[in-house]
Write a structure and sequence with these properties.
The structure holds two protein chains of two kinds. Chain A contains eleven helices and 18 strands. Chain A is an alpha/beta fold. In chain A, a hairpin with a 3-residue loop joins strand 1 and strand 2. Chain A is globular. The relative contact order of chain A is 0.12. Chain B is mostly helical. Helices cover 65% and strands 0% of the residues of chain B. In chain B, helix 8 runs antiparallel to helix 13 and helix 13 packs across helix 15. The chains are: A alpha/beta, B mainly alpha. The interface between A and B is large, with 56 and 46 residues.
Chain lengths: 397, 329
């Protein structure tokens, strides 16, 4: 765990107490002037706004008329370009009605640094005291990032970051919560486009899904401002867990819990005292479950601003060539949209229009570059993101 | 014809298994009756903690005694257990391969050895089911009153339309079976499961209420409220509670039924023969896999449920792209 020798003073820094916390409020000041009315953050987090000169085009009168405000671009940075074990990043953002925000990660991939092997050994050594130590130790070793964004009516968030790259032996958990205004209907709904992807690690070092734990959870809630009632609209949760040595600790802590309830303390078998079976350690569970992909990800789209993009992706998906079918048509080759975009063998993807008008794209590709080219290609070809948010929204793609 | 043989074999095997289990339970019950006079005995606690791990050292004297204890069947949940594990339960599960068909199409090169490839799929499929759906089964059983919320949350968590359709179709079929067949016996007047477990009564009410709101809901009133859907997993948990099964049984049959469905799909997709499928179903390995996964997810709250096999979502989602299909998922 690193400590800042000298905390870097930010002119915006104020009441934020905990390290890694950040708070952003984007308001629309009259007449039509998007302004960050709050911007605070603390080491190791850094939030840098960039006044964008981009003004959304007026090709689509429907959209432009209702929310024509200029997008504000926010860079999400961490010192060192990644997260160390024990780092907790907690960003809360509020997009007031009719505002637009672009969030990118200009440092390249979010590196998840490894948990020190010393710690792992330490866990093995303190077996006798595992009741309290291991779970805390694991928690302390885990890097965490939480992002909580409230998107007002007619507001839009475009969040297309770089993938997260978990290093060997790292542990990471990320929860991203997006709350939309439940009372907004039709064209006034909040819009969001969120990408979440994870790679196998540093391929240059031969890493291939060698981390311990990675969890990415994305939730979209609809909240009624008047009644305060919330409804879960979408939850996308991916858990990549190598299920090795925390297995025993987990079971043990459960046994301990059960013991403490006094049910059958004498009959509980001594779980976890034996070493884990050999095949557990030799088999890379995560690799097995992601095969043959080197990167997996999810793209979530909702709301009027991303309607056309959603429809475009659905169309692209549905016009992929049938699997295992014969190509009887002689003209098929020329009518195929663009082989480099939609039917590239190295990207396996699926798109679904799920409930509440959400379009969910899931993909797996052989490596980061392939996924990036494929997704960037599709988004540029459709064009509405560039039109509405400017080329810089696709910075990471 | 082939299918019939397979089915009769499957049934026969199941009957054998269940008979063995019946014998087991009778013995246990007889023993607990025998020891109930002595208040320090906690054998029943042990078996509740892990019924599948409970020792089965059969006492010979109980085996040789030739008396049928009708009470031992009556008080156990055996009857309900048999009903719910029956492959003839009209849920339409045979129509779904849970991604197997698509997996095979996507992994053609692996077909050189289809059996190895299938084993891999079965393992991934069970792990995925346990991490995504099982927490909802457990939550439905533990808190039947939250059925509607669980249904909404599972619907929100189902990323692909193919899986969503399969889950909803089977869930609604399950409600149908309840209304047309089970309700009369398990929720009617008389000493039903509710007599011993107040939760069973809550569960019954939850199913009835849910079924009612499923019928009454009119679509399109609120974009953000898609209404009740009828997903399979939470309903399964609630129904097992209403029918007096214990939580371990509810979880185990849920996963086992899934394994049976995948195996049956494999037979029909000509990956293997019916005997081979039975031998996998009967194997110790499968049992161990199922128990390991259940144990892992036993205390997973539904908020923490998630996909551990990202590749499976892709296969299931791309089922729609198959040129020819014999299954609905």
């Amino acid at each position: 765990m690193r400590q800042p020798a000298m905390p870097i003073r930010s002119p915006f820094e104020s009441s934020i107490a905990k390290p890694g916390q950040g708070n952003v409020v984007l308001s629309l000041l009259p007449p039509n002037n998007p302004t960050l009315t709050t911007l605070t953050y603390k080491y190791p987090l850094k939030l840098v706004p960039r006044a964008s000169s981009f003004v959304p085009g007026s090709e689509d009168p429907d959209v432009s008329e209702t929310c024509s405000s200029r997008p504000v671009h926010l860079y999400l940075l961490t010192y060192g370009g990644g997260l160390l074990p024990g780092d907790h990043i907690e960003v809360s953002m509020q997009l007031e009605p009719r505002t637009r925000m672009v969030v990118t990660t200009p440092q390249g991939s979010t590196k998840i640094f490894k948990t020190e092997p010393n710690n792992a050994n330490g866990i093995k050594l303190i077996k006798g005291h595992r009741e309290q130590m291991p779970s805390h130790q694991h928690l302390a070793d885990m890097s965490k990032q939480s992002l909580d964004v409230r998107i007002g009516r007619q507001a839009a968030l475009c969040y297309l970051p770089d993938p997260s790259v978990p290093f060997k032996n790292s542990r990471y958990a990320q929860v991203q919560t997006f709350t939309v205004d439940a009372s907004a209907k039709g064209g006034e709904r909040s819009s969001l486009c969120v990408l979440d992807w994870v790679t196998q690690g540093r391929t240059s070092r031969g890493e291939n899904w060698d981390f311990r734990f990675w969890r990415g959870r994305n939730e979209v809630w609809a909240r009624d401002e008047k009644t305060g009632r919330k409804r879960l609209l979408l939850r996308d949760s991916v858990i990549l867990d190598d299920e090795t040595d925390d297995d025993a600790t987990l079971e043990e802590s459960l046994t301990v819990e059960r013991d403490s309830t006094g049910l059958d303390s004498h009959t509980a078998p001594p779980v976890g005292t034996q070493p884990p079976p050999a095949e557990h350690t030799s088999l890379n569970v995560i690799k097995e479950r992601t095969r043959p992909h080197g990167v997996v990800g999810t793209l979530i789209m909702a709301g009027p601003v991303f309607d056309s993009l959603g429809s475009f992706l659905m169309h692209q998906f549905n016009s992929q060539p049938r699997i295992g079918g014969q190509n009887w048509s002689s003209t098929a080759q020329s009518s195929e949209p663009d082989p480099s975009l939609s039917s590239k063998g190295e990207v396996t993807w699926t798109a679904a229009r799920v409930r509440a008008g959400f379009v969910l794209v899931k993909f797996g590709a052989k490596d980061f570059e392939t996924a990036k080219d494929w997704l960037g290609g599709l988004l540029r070809k459709e064009g509405s993101i560039v039109r509405e948010f400017g080329e810089e929204a696709l910075f990471c793609l | 014809m082939l299918q019939e043989t397979a089915q009769s074999h499957q049934l026969q095997d199941e009957i054998d298994q269940l008979e063995a289990r019946l014998l087991d339970m009778r013995t246990q019950l007889a023993r607990s009756k025998f020891t109930s006079t002595c208040p320090t005995s906690r054998s029943s606690w042990i078996s509740q903690d892990a019924p599948w791990k409970a020792s089965t050292d059969l006492d010979q004297s109980h085996l040789t005694r030739s008396q049928f204890h009708s009470d031992s069947v009556r008080t156990s949940s055996l009857h309900a257990l048999l009903l719910l594990s029956d492959s003839a339960l009209p849920l339409g599960s045979f129509a779904y391969s849970s991604g197997l068909e698509s997996y095979l199409a996507h992994n053609k090169s692996l077909r050189a050895n289809p059996l190895t490839s299938f084993h891999r799929f079965l393992k991934l499929s069970i792990a995925s089911l346990a991490s995504t759906s099982l927490p909802y089964v457990l939550a439905g059983y533990r808190e039947p009153a939250t059925l509607e919320t669980l249904d909404n949350d599972l619907d929100a968590s189902t990323p692909c339309i193919v899986g969503q359709r399969a889950s909803v179709a089977q869930g609604r079929a399950l409600i149908g079976v309840w209304e047309r067949a089970f309700r009369r016996s398990f929720a009617g007047p008389g000493p039903g499961p509710a007599a011993t477990d107040t939760g069973a009564g809550v569960a019954t009410t939850a199913i009835e209420d849910f079924s009612e709101s499923l019928k009454l809901f009119c679509e399109g009133q609120d974009e953000y409220d898609p209404g009740p859907q009828g997903h399979f997993a939470p309903l399964w948990g609630v129904m097992c509670r209403a029918m007096g099964l214990d939580l371990h049984q509810a979880a185990y049959i849920f996963v086992l039924n899934h394994a049976k469905a995948v195996l049956s799909a494999a037979v029909r997709a000509s990956v293997m023969g019916p005997y081979q499928a039975q031998s996998i179903l009967a194997s110790q390995t499968l049992q161990e896999t199922i128990m390991e996964r259940i144990e892992r997810e036993w205390n997973t709250p539904v908020e923490e449920a998630g996909q551990v096999v990202p590749a499976l979502d892709l296969w299931v989602g791309r089922h729609e792209l198959l040129y020819s299909r014999i299954f609905n998922s």
